[in-house]
Amino acid sequence: MKTIPRVVFTIIAFIFPLTLFMACEPVQPVDEQIPTETSPYTEATVVEIIDAGCILVNTGSNQEVVRYIGVEIPDSADNGFLQEAAAANRELVEGKLVKLESDEQDKDTNGRLLRYVYAGETMINLHLLELGYMQTDVSRPNVKYERLFYEAEKQAKTAGNGIWAVKLAPEEKGFREVGEKKEKSDYNNISPKDKPYHPDREWEEEEPAVNRTTHGIIARDEIWRDEIHITGDIVVMGCATLTIEPGTRVLIAANRDEDNQNTGSIEMRQGIKQEDNHEGGIHYHEPYLDEGNHISIRVDGTFNAVGTEDNMIVITSDSDSPTMYDWNYLNFNEGTLSYCIVEYYRFITPGEKSVVSHNILRHIGAAGIGCGKGSPIIEYNEISDAGHEAVDMHGGSPTIRYNHLGPVPGNVGIIIDGGSPAITGNTIEGCSFGILFISDGSTPIIEDNTFRNNECDIQPWI
Asked: Quick check: 284 pLDDT over 60?
């Protein structure tokens, strides 16, 4: 499956539909009618057009990103064509009540709903194929309308519609050129995947939104700057980047969540844990996550929170009397958390392609940083006042270097549970255990660390 690129909305959205129908032959309707009498539908309102094949909808209970199933944007499309396709999609569904029909798979790997989308009696997936804005991308097990889709694409090719049309000059299509015209490249030597629709044109890029999302789903690039108050869970989709600028204050609502995105049984459990185990990362006599009343930030795309030494980013509770359980977690798989003060949270979990550096992490309910089976770089951080350990690693091969860990009285500087970490140049102080092995089979590198005032500096697996 190809990644659907983000699109640019410009003035062409308003002038293109007329020129399209002047340039292309009309599409004959597909003979076979789409069966509707037994199809399972849900209804939703289209909130936003993300691109030609992806929309944001409100289902009444929450917001979801929906990807049109069975179709994709053509490989040869450039920004100009993407704008046209998105404009057509916008005209068809934006602000409308639509019906959503599922196939065998509910979601894709980025968490987007896979649906056939209907505006009235028109299936939008199919109609965009007929107009030549999309090409077929039917794959098992989602093959309910396979024959219809291939027939629609065939008719669009025959009619010369959309991407199948003879390419016109930008002026004839009503495009708006920006910037200097680039030297024309050797079009025949460009790979099909990278070949643009008009290789000698430069197109205006859309500016990311600023401080638009205080709760819910972020489905396109967004910037947080100055001050933003987060009132509910944030989920950044795999197609988007969240950037936090230097000096920004991110105030997270304490002990309340107006848009909960996490509904698992462990996540939603309330009260104080009475069982003496570590299920769900919750220890004996600690409060449960209580996700219905605590905010979490999950970034499936890219996360870039990069301050400076003199202008650090602050991510904190909005409470006048904050505690270490005011909000739950920050989870990101790719990106950078640097020169930030993060406090009054339960844990941070950086992923495989991430860097955590030069931060002050404090007043923490659980682990300052929790590493899974990846290889993040954790360096030059100050981590203190943690309810569990400063750094908690389970497998993987993280680089943990030049950090100041502690004091965390009664707890651990670094827990090692398997994996091959490189732990070098750290200062670990004021802990029950500086480094604690809790399983066998680890192959760490532990060099040039300084231990101060710990009850035990290194406790190997026994």
From this structure: yes
Are residues 182 and 199 in contact, defined by beta-carbon separation less than 8 angstroms? no
pLDDT at 373: 76
More confident residue, 309 or 160: 309
Say which DSSP state 139 is in: B
pLDDT, tens only, 51-107 = 889 999 999 888 999 999 999 887 667 777 888 889 999 999 999 999 999 998 999
**Per-residue CA distances from 91 to 96, 203, 237, 336 (Å):** 10, 22, 24, 38
161: amino acid identity, one letter: N
Burial 67-87 (b: 16+ CB within 10 A, else e): bbbbbbbbebbebbbbbbbbb
Helices (H), 265-315: 265-268
What topology does CATH give the domain 12-173? OB fold (Dihydrolipoamide Acetyltransferase, E2P) (2.40.50)
Packing angle, helices 79-93 and 12-23, rounded to 10: 90
Specify burial of residue 135 (Cβ count, 10 A radius: 0-12, 13-18, 19+): buried
- Find the helix or strand (DSSP H, E) in which 383 lies: strand 382-383
- Judge contact between 225 and 288, C-beta under 8 A: no
**For residues 305 and 342, is the Cβ–Cβ distance under 8 A?**
no
Cα separation, 102 vs 125, whole angstroms: 12
Instruction: Yes or no: say if 428 and 456 are a contact pair by the CB < 8 Å rule.
Output: no
Alpha carbons within 13 angstroms on the beta-carbon side of residue 130 total: 15
